[in-house]
Amino acid sequence: MSSRDRILGRIRRAVADGHPDPAVPRDYLRVHGVRTPAETADLLAAHLTEYRARVHRTDAAGIAPLLGRLLAARGARTVLVPTGLPPHWLDRVEAVTVADRTASTTYELDAVDSVVTGCALAIAETGTIVLDGGPGQGRRRITLIPDHHVCVVRVPDQVVDSVPQALPLLDPTRHLTWISGPSATSDIELDRVEGVHGPRTLEVILLTGPAE
């Protein structure tokens, strides 16, 4: 019998009949304060900026020109586009679009200049964006390997105040990626290095107006 089997056996015996699950108090605050949707979006933008993400705001009419400007300013020659991303968002993009293919190797993805995705939702109090691989988001690795990630968040539909509000809206069986700013780490001397295990540059577009 392996160590794993012994540990699981102890857990099964501990929760068997006659050993009811202990009650877990859930009296913590679900949200810290009362905010209007505009205030929630402002809080999200503030925390994203604090994490060194670049935050932009636009509406449906401005999304295509904005994406065109951001990718041109980056000098992107190729941009990876997941299935389900509204095609008109890229009407002003001059870079060559690359489809999200299962067969793409890490070397091929590393050669892509930028990736544009949507998201599942965003959390204002923590400045976190959550991806779940749904339409317009693609597979997890397309947002971890390219060095430049542009993520579009629909406001207010995809923005919640807190983590307790976010969890019931997410499917725990899906692969969830939680992003709080660009990828970064610090060594023992607190020297910050970005782009270690994900994009060096994260740009977030807060898109207001009705879903398209």
UniProtKB/TrEMBL annotation:
Coiled-coil positions: none
SUPFAM superfamilies given in the database record: NagB/RpiA/CoA transferase-like (SSF100950)
Superkingdom in the source lineage: Bacteria
The protein's name: LUD domain-containing protein
Native source organism of the sequence: Streptomyces flavotricini
Annotated InterPro entries: FTHF_cligase-like_sf, LUD_dom, NagB/RpiA_transferase-like
Annotated ranges, domain LUD: 89-207
